Amino acid sequence: MHKNHQISASVILRNHQVIFNGKVIFETAEDLELLAFLKACYQDLEIDYAKFYKMDLLSKLGFIASEYLAKDQKLTPETALILQNSSGSLETDLNYQASISNENAFASPSVFVYTLPNIVLGELSIRQQLQTENAFFISEKFDASFLIVYLQNLFSTNKANAAICGWLDLDKEGYNVFLSLITQDDKGKALTAENLKENYEQFKTRA
Amino acid sequence: MRQKPAVHIIDDEIIAPLGWGTSANIAQIKQRQTAIKKHKISAENFYYAALFEEEELQQNFKKLSFSNAEDFTKLEKLFLLTVHQLLERNPINLEETVLIISTTKGNVELLENAENSIPEKSKLYSLGKTIQKYFNIKNEPITLSNACISGGLGLSVGKRLLEENAYKNALVLGGDVVSKFTRSGFQLLQAMDSEICKPYDKNRKGINLGEAAAGVLLSTEIQNSTIQIVGEAIANDANHISGPSRRGEGLVKAISSALKEAHLESSAIDYISAHGTATLYNDAMEAQAFGRLNLQQKPLTSYKAHYGHTFGGSALIESILSIKSLQQNLLFPSLGCSEIGVEPPLNIQQNLEEKKLKYALKTASGFGGCNFAMIFKNLMYA
């Protein structure tokens, strides 16, 4: 059904490394704060996008990963965004909760807006001008089989002709990001659950 | 291209402050009732919302054989009751059934007392685990959180999985409860009306909060269904994270794409169950989008002045109500619009009216710039 669709590129953000198609292309010291690591990535990307600074950490993570993913190509507006994680928007939820629990803290509407996991899909849609399917799923573990069935339906019904899919998670323990770009290019790996899972499993520990 | 199996609506359930069970809800709607009331926050602070009476919830929960009430959160109880009702009426094979849960904030109230450890139930996927365990559902549940379109997206996800023959049936649930978390957030956004909300009205001032749960059983194999999902799509505005595109770009795209899948022109639509949150920008955006598609004359309802905005529940509840309109050939009244305040003016359904209906369009839009459209076909239309 989706024989023309390939996993044309993958980006992993783990342990303060950026891994593009299996190679470490940028890294910082592991003891940097996450925000400092993301700002270093932003500088490495040589981009100028003021909205980046307003985003919450989950959106910043998604933004940086997708910038590396789309660095050398223009995405079509018909690129779907289908992401999963296990924590939803928990980090920002906790920040917001702390601000309303503490009488001395300042609760901010702009923090509240980020207490939805799909806000990052909006941020990426705005940046890349993607105007099609979006969905944010919450599951305990990365579920490649589900993604494949879902993408198969989007492509075969012409609701999208490409996709960014993967895992974008952030909690107190840390972050874990894996995004794949699925296109109709002839380069890349076949779009199968096994291949997606295999790409996801790379670089679980720092190389 | 391989023909995809048709996905049918088999049964539905709404549990809301307006009524327990879909029929009770319809009876209330026919009588122009609202569940939105004034609630106290502090001595001088009030807000309008549609909230459950704690006692009624506990009484109903006792009906369940595993009703150890203290083990469950409010939202879990609502979902368990919804699934219980659906499974009692429909003896489906659970081995071939997928559970889909749509919620924006799940059990977020549990974070209130979470000092250092994060309660497992504050993770959204835990809702699925609870339901899976109690009804012995083998397949891994699917949970999604996609702002105000969540309940509608759940139906789309169910349809898509069934079309790919991944399962035979899908139990789609949607719901949220009102917590200090969401209430304070919408207060900060200054997005709440200080009275009952007024969708599409000139003097609309914002939303009311609401809580509810709903469930829909979808199937590709159960016979005797009267409703089929013939088209649906999601589209992003790619414009702003907390405000809609002024011209309704994403909504136009979602509706167009749903019509295309249904092989229909917009003129075929008989009725629209719209989002109609009663915020200035949402309602204005919808009017623009409907106008661009030449849908502005179609009878249109917003149910937000009956239920408040129930977030994860809203698009699912309103889909069920569209289905009831088709099944009963009845247009239900929209509440709160006394003077139209959108351009182009929309044809707000003011009264209960009998009308033969073949196609109903359900739409929703939400934060993150997401838009949802789904078209239901009345198979009994003659």
UniProtKB/TrEMBL annotation, chain A:
<protein>
    <recommendedName>
        <fullName>3-oxoacyl-ACP synthase</fullName>
    </recommendedName>
</protein>
UniProtKB/TrEMBL annotation, chain B:
<feature type="domain" description="Ketosynthase family 3 (KS3)">
    <location>
        <begin position="1"/>
        <end position="378"/>
    </location>
</feature>
<keyword id="KW-0808">Transferase</keyword>
<dbReference type="InterPro" id="IPR014030">
    <property type="entry name" value="Ketoacyl_synth_N"/>
</dbReference>
<dbReference type="InterPro" id="IPR000794">
    <property type="entry name" value="Beta-ketoacyl_synthase"/>
</dbReference>
<dbReference type="InterPro" id="IPR020841">
    <property type="entry name" value="PKS_Beta-ketoAc_synthase_dom"/>
</dbReference>
<protein>
    <submittedName>
        <fullName>Beta-ketoacyl synthase</fullName>
    </submittedName>
</protein>
<dbReference type="Pfam" id="PF02801">
    <property type="entry name" value="Ketoacyl-synt_C"/>
</dbReference>
<dbReference type="InterPro" id="IPR016039">
    <property type="entry name" value="Thiolase-like"/>
</dbReference>
<comment type="similarity">
    <text>Belongs to the thiolase-like superfamily. Beta-ketoacyl-ACP synthases family.</text>
</comment>
<dbReference type="InterPro" id="IPR014031">
    <property type="entry name" value="Ketoacyl_synth_C"/>
</dbReference>
<dbReference type="Pfam" id="PF00109">
    <property type="entry name" value="ketoacyl-synt"/>
</dbReference>
